[in-house]
Amino acid sequence: MKNYANKNLNPFFIFFSALLIHGCVANKDTAIDRRFQNLTARYNYIYNANVLLTEYNESLLQSYADNYEKTLSVYLDPEPQVNLVLTPGIANKQLDDVITKGQTIINDKSFSNYIDDAYMLLGKANYLKGNYFIATEYFDYTAKTYNNDLKTFIMAMNWKVRSQMQLNNMVLADKILDTMLRASDELKKDLAEPLATAAQMRIYQKRNKEAILFLESAIALPAEKQLRIRWRFILAQLQEKEKNLQDAYANFTKVEKSNAPFEMYFHANLNRIKLKALLSGVKLNKEEQLLALLKDDKNFDYTDQIYYQVGELFSAEGNFVKAEENYHKSVAKSTRNQTQKALSYLKIADLNFKEFNNYIKAKLYYDSTVMILPKNFPDYDNIVKKANNLQYLTDRYTIIAKEDTAQAIAKLPADQREAKVKAYLTPKVEVVNTGGVINNQLLNDPDFPNRSLNAANNNAVGNTFYFNNNAAISNGFGDFKKRWGNRQLEDNWRQSARSSAQETNQILAGGNVATEIKPANGAANQAATEQTSLEKQFLDALPTTPALLATSDQKIIDAYFEIASFYQQELNDKPEANKIYLELIKRYPENNHLVAIYYSLYLNYKGIDEAKSDQYKQLVLTKFPESNFAKNILDPSYSAKQTQMENIAINNYNVAFDAYAKKDYANVVKQADDNIAAFPNNDLAPQYAYLKAIAIGRTAKIDPLLNEFNQITTLYPNDKIITPLVRDHLKYIEANLEEFKQRPLALIDFDANAPRFVSQATPIAVPTKPLVTDNATKKAVESAPVAKPVEVKPVDPTKPASIFSAAKSEEYYYVIDVADATLTLSSSRFGIGQFNRGNYPDNDLVHKLVELDNDQLIYITSFVDLEDAKIYESSIIGQLKNIMKVPANLYKGFIISKENFEKLTDRSRINEYLEFLKDNYK
Question: Residue 698: which H helix or E strand, with range?
């Protein structure tokens, strides 16, 4: 019986197995196959793939770190890539399994109805892995292939928009979004995510009011619960930004009462309390309610943010002392949230800079902010720029404070001035450490900028501890001074010489007295002598006469103007720039920068306050109708026309110079006369006159040449390029007049690029000489007491090591980089030669040319030290516009050591050096 049963079952089992294998392997377009493929594709692959995506999103929700100091992103996505970096997608088993399932459906279930879903799975998985290019291709294919299925088309377009936003292709993403929104008008459901995506685009575009409308619509539609809570929080953030406080309060309250993640719940509660206080006008309650959050143990990890919000409330009320106090508490409690600590540092820095005018302390806190603030933080670049350039602003605010103090003391009776000066210049603290590197322990201490290195140690007992024993300190100080002399407590204190930047920091901290290490038993005699000398200098410089007072006022005016210009042009902080401009006008209504100030205010208020903008526009037009600013207002293309005219003038000069190089002297004279007649007041007129004079000297005797030279000195007495050179020529001719009179032609025709008045000798290599200028004596006297070292700056560990060196060199060059290898620079080099011979006749300066692939480097050699190179740079930089016969946007000048110059091989190396220069020699 048993054997009989087996024999009967075997054929059935074989048949069933064959049918099963056929169903799994065969891929035919039959009704049975389609049904079977639909069944397995839907329940074996689509369902399981969606489960995997849900699990991945839930794990992402747990690990995703939101920054609640800015508007949250609509989805749990990273920030869009500003600089596109192609990297392999993240390794994730769940997402890899989703990709495998999607590919299986496409390859093995090709007659099922789920091919579009498979392509969407592939796109979503690649998107979540960070493969945005691949994801875009899948979504694009799905949208084009299945455009008849409206739901599939809109979902594919929605994810394509998200992919393009992640790639920072905002223009393309906006176009795709527009197409999707037009198509969505016909879809009645499943629109929540597309509307939320549209809101995210509007947030990126800073069109908050439109984003609010999209989010309100998305929240009203069915969607995943946690996403809707997130969208409501973002909606409240946007409403608060748009000053719709009532609706923002209502939405923060709804988030607080929802099943939101704890961190979102906490911030919703924090914002709700703040807005409730603002709406009710009860100032006391908002502080009390915020501080009441500290009593809840669940909020322990958010103590720093609570104190920060309290500080914000006091700051809004104008109580900046209490605000700073709470920001310090926030810093002290920020043990894990580095972003929050950076924000508190930033607020303290801003308060000290804008409200307390404590620029040294502000600089310390800006530096601390930059050290720990994430680089993707909004306005990060401006914060870095402010930290890097605070010295510029500090110097000018210091000038204002110093001159105001000097003027106030000058108004006192003569017998009271000396006591006031002494009180003003006497340091308030014995030691201030302005140069040392702050260690991590001090960085975490909110009061580190206020600490004195000589503060008493209250925990010490008796005098056994070295630093509590005055006798031991005095002996140690004496031994130290015998070996090292007077040294400031700072990095690299073994360096005997000081850089200009170090000296500036010393002065800002209160002079030499404030920064030297003092023995415990009193100040050294040398310091007392220096203090007395400093007081005498200050007394002698007091603006006690109208002329000195005018000079002092001008320093204040220039400082205010430069501060405002810096805010406007460098930091793009127009409100702060306007504030400084208005303060300057208030103090000095008739200053020499008035037209530039009116024009800047006109531009800054344009589009913000049209009435004020028009007011300053009319002031420019009525008070300064002939100024370039007025011409720019009346004709917006005026600047472009001026640039065009300048380029024409440069081209005309190059034509005249080419004629000179070809020894077509008659044409040179004609070109010069024509251009001088057409543009008599052009800056190039003296150079045309010089070309004409040299051409005449090549073709006539000495008298016509002398006539031309004398006309140049008469017509252009203030020219800095040609006139000094011509005066030098006239001196030489006068000393050798008899020889010149015997010549058939005044000038012997040698190298056209280097006209000489006497026989041209073979050049002989000579050692580099110190730069000889009018203030050479002054320079020597000033530089005698202290040698100039190379300033050593702390290394930024985040930056790769530079190939360039800041080490002291025995030879420096001044380089003019022309970013166009196709231009002819003969006329420009001729102009450099004219400038050098006229202004530095005793220095044997030589200019040479190096051609790279895309750049041409004119370098002037050589200078014995960095100071000489800086003196030369300061003298030529204002004349480059007239010297260089190429458009101004194509060239830039800089100083470089001989060793670093040899490393300039291409444009990327030049750009790298310019960054190095900014960090090391600014």
Answer: helix 685-699
One-letter identity of residue 10: N
Give 168's Cβ-side CA count (13 Å radius): 8
**What are the b/e assignments for 11-28, b being 16+ CB within 10 Å?**
eeeeeeeeeeeeeeeeee
Q: Contact 347/362 with Cβ under 8 angstroms?
A: no
Concatenate the DSSP letters of all residues of 261-295 into one string.
-HHHHHHHHHHHHHHHHHHHT-HHHHHHHHHHGGG
Name the 3-class secondary structure at 340: helix
List pLDDT tens digits, range 493-552: 555 544 444 444 444 444 443 334 444 445 456 666 666 777 788 888 888 899 999 999
Q: Which residues touch 609 (CB under 8 Å, ≥6 apart)? A: none
Instruction: Tokens for 529, please give them.
Output: 């002598």
Assigned token pair, 89: 């997608």
Separation between Cα atoms, residue 176 and residue 182, nearest integer Å:
10
Question: At which residue do the structure tokens 């030369």 appear?
Answer: 872
- Cα 158 from chain centre: 35
CB 274 within 8 A of CB 290: yes
What tokens were used for 264? Answer: 């979102």
For residue 896 the two structure tokens come to 């470089």
User: Can you read off the two tokens belonging to residue 491?
Assistant: 């990095």
Q: What totals of helices (H) and strands (E) does the chain contain, helices first?
A: 42, 4
Of 583, 586, 593, which Cα lies nearest the Cα of 554?
A: 593
The residue with tokens 């001159």 is 403
Helix, strand, coil shares of the chain as percentages rounded to 5?
A: 65, 5, 30
Reported residue count of the chain is: 922
Give the relative orientation of helices 283-292 and 262-280 as an angle to the nearest 10 degrees: 160
What is the Cα Rg of the chain in Å? 38
For the whole model, what pTM was predicted? 0.44
pLDDT tens digits along 674-694: 888 887 777 888 988 999 999
Interatomic CA distance for residues 243 and 840, integer angstroms: 63
Alpha helix locations (H) across 26-131? 31-40, 47-63, 93-108, 115-129
Q: Which residue has the tokens 């299986």?
A: 104
Dist. CA 517–CA 473, nearest whole Å? 11
Nearest to 329 by CA among 316, 340, 319: 340
Which stretch of DSSP H or E encloses residue 198? Answer: helix 192-204
Tokens of 276: 């409730």
Tokens standing for residue 797: 């560990």
Per-residue pLDDT, averaged over 245-271, amounts to 88
